[in-house]
From TrEMBL:
Gene3D superfamilies: Winged helix-like DNA-binding domain superfamily/Winged helix DNA-binding domain
Protein name per UniProt: Winged helix DNA-binding domain-containing protein
Superkingdom in the source lineage: Eukaryota
Assembly mode: Homotrimer. Homotrimerization increases the affinity of HSF1 to DNA. Interacts with transcriptional coregulator SSA1 on chromatin.
Organism encoding this protein: Tilletiaria anomala (strain ATCC 24038 / CBS 436.72 / UBC 951)
Keyword DNA-binding belongs to the record: yes
């Protein structure tokens, strides 16, 4: 199996196996990689921010996925229940930066938290509409 494919196995507290979807695991890997500067956790660790979607798509996505398509990345975030922060929330998240709002995007998920990586086990793909 190619690196990054499938789901990661984690043993739960009760000894049961939990599966983290590949997309969620790769997203966490990007955020934990100090060499990737185009995507970072917000200071409180409850959301993340993509600083420049064009550069991120070109330079980062191909290292984790088989594409460099920003819209595909956004679609995956939506499928797993991530929410784009509103303008007011986004402004608060980027208030200490010189980046332009047009190229910066911030997202959150109640189970995707920097301090609590085990909660990723509960993130599930949404059922198709």
């Amino acid at each position: 199996m190619e690196q990054g494919e499938g789901s990661a196995d984690l043993t739960g507290l009760a000894g049961q196996k939990k599966r983290i979807p590949a997309f969620v695991r790769k997203l966490r890997s990007m955020l934990d990689n100090k060499d990737v500067i185009q995507i970072k956790w917000t200071p409180d660790g409850a959301a993340f921010r993509v600083f420049d979607s064009v550069t991120f798509s070109r330079d980062v996505l191909p290292n984790y996925f088989k594409h460099n398509n920003w819209q595909s990345f956004i679609r995956q975030l939506n499928i797993y229940g991530f929410i784009k922060l509103t303008d007011a929330m986004h402004t608060a998240a980027v208030s200490h930066s010189n980046s332009t709002p047009q190229s910066d995007w911030s997202f959150r998920h109640p189970l995707f938290l920097r301090k609590y990586p085990r909660r990723m086990e509960e993130i599930k793909r949404r059922a198709p509409k």
